[in-house]
Specification:
Elements (H helix, E strand, L loop, with lengths): L1 E5 L7 E4 L10 E11 L1 H7 L13 E2 L4 E8 L11 E4 L9 H4 L24 E5 L3 E3 L6 H4 L5 H12 L8 E5 L5 H11 L3 E6 L2 H10 L3 E4 L4 H8 L5 E6 L6 H8 E9 L10 H7 L2 E4 L5 H12 L7 E5 L3 H9 L6 E5 L3
Parallel strand pairs: 9-10, 9-12, 10-11, 12-13, 13-14, 15-16
Antiparallel strand pairs: 1-2, 1-4, 3-5, 3-7, 3-16, 5-6, 6-8
Helix pairs in contact: 4-5, 5-6, 7-8
Length: 344
């Protein structure tokens, strides 16, 4: 089969032939990929930023946002059958450790992370995963339409879902960055809360999209974005700020936009949040990190997606055009998410 393989950090991955995956355990599932999302994390992996944290042995296959059709199942699989359309939770969990028993499968002691850690991902024609990762889709759903919800959508949903109790009617939520994750976060906020949604981005096209998706107010990131958010909130700041950028100074803007006693949900990464300890103490602000989401989060997100309340804006590429898709993402030429479609 064809697969997008990373051989060296700081160099583009290449599309090459590799052996098809095979079943090796009773709960294994082989999925024929219908769509694989291209994520900014893939760029960070190529740059070597995850080399020490996750330690993938090169070469390996990229791709952690995957959906498709069940191609083969192990003898112990009962929740899906050959032919089922599925979206895959990006981090298959064991189901047995304490974290899994508590529903925190992202903290599973034995979890794998295909496409990020030392396991081949889904930028390929086929992927081996486990039954525990599979969420069945409506047969009418095209896997390529929802593939990026497996990580980008799941991450945005997980952050918003945690913040829902903090966002009653009359509150304000700021979404900083209306790109691949942020445009999903806006829709989830609109679906789950009655909060006032303020979106900050430097791109006018992104702000126009945000307005169509449910933003009540949009703010151009032109150097005066913090003041603009404070003006919108009568000087208080927002009860919750979702920072989908978190680099190049945006992370510190997000802190300044957060109201005293409010919560900053850090979703993007790459920068460094510097907070004087006295400011943290005096303001009683909370800083909350977010890493993907749980299996239940993904199930709930798919309900919103299949009911039309969350929609991905995508651009499709054939698998052979993976390098083009990665370049377009790196150069901000994509509005929404890039999707590799092996069968295209």
């Amino acid at each position: 089969m064809k697969a997008v393989r990373l051989h060296d950090y700081h160099k583009q991955p290449i599309v090459e032939e590799v052996p098809d995956p095979v079943l090796s355990g009773p709960l294994d599932v082989i999925v024929r990929i219908g769509g694989a999302g291209v994520c900014r994390t893939d760029l960070h992996i190529i740059e070597g930023q995850w080399a020490e944290a996750m330690g993938p042995r090169l070469p390996y296959t990229l791709g952690h946002e995957n959906a498709g059709w069940v191609h083969a199942v192990g003898g112990g699989v009962t929740n899906v059958e050959v032919g089922d359309a599925v979206i895959l939770h990006p981090q298959p969990a064991c189901g047995l450790c304490l974290a899994c028993r508590e529903g925190r499968d992202m903290a599973c002691a034995a979890a794998a992370f295909p496409g990020v850690s030392d396991h081949d991902g889904g930028m390929a024609e086929y992927l081996r995963t486990t039954a525990r990762a599979c969420v069945k889709l409506d047969p009418a759903t095209d896997p390529a339409d929802v593939a990026a919800l497996a990580d980008a959508g799941l991450t945005a949903y997980h952050a918003v879902r945690k913040a829902v109790p903090l966002l009653p009617p009359g509150s304000t939520a700021v979404v900083q960055g209306a790109g691949g994750l942020g445009h999903i976060g806006i829709q989830v906020l609109a679906a789950l809360t009655a909060t006032k949604i303020v979106v900050v981005d430097r791109d006018p096209a992104a702000l126009a999209l945000a307005a169509r998706l449910g933003a009540d107010t949009t703010v151009r990131a032109d150097g005066n974005q913090v003041s603009a958010v404070l003006d919108v909130t009568s000087g208080r700041g927002a009860e919750v700020v979702f920072d989908f950028v978190a680099e190049q100074g945006a992370e510190n803007d997000a802190w300044d936009m957060t109201a005293a006693g409010g919560s900053l949900f850090v979703v993007g990464y790459g920068g460094e949040l510097r907070i004087p300890t006295v400011a943290a103490v005096a303001s009683e602000k909370n800083v909350i990190g977010n890493m993907v989401g749980t299996y239940r989060d993904l199930v709930e997100l798919m309900v919103l997606a299949e009911s039309g309340k969350v929609n991905l804006h995508t651009r499709r590429y054939p698998l052979d055009a993976a390098a083009e898709a990665l370049d377009d993402l790196a150069l901000n030429r994509i509005r929404g998410r890039a999707i590799l479609v092996p069968q295209a």
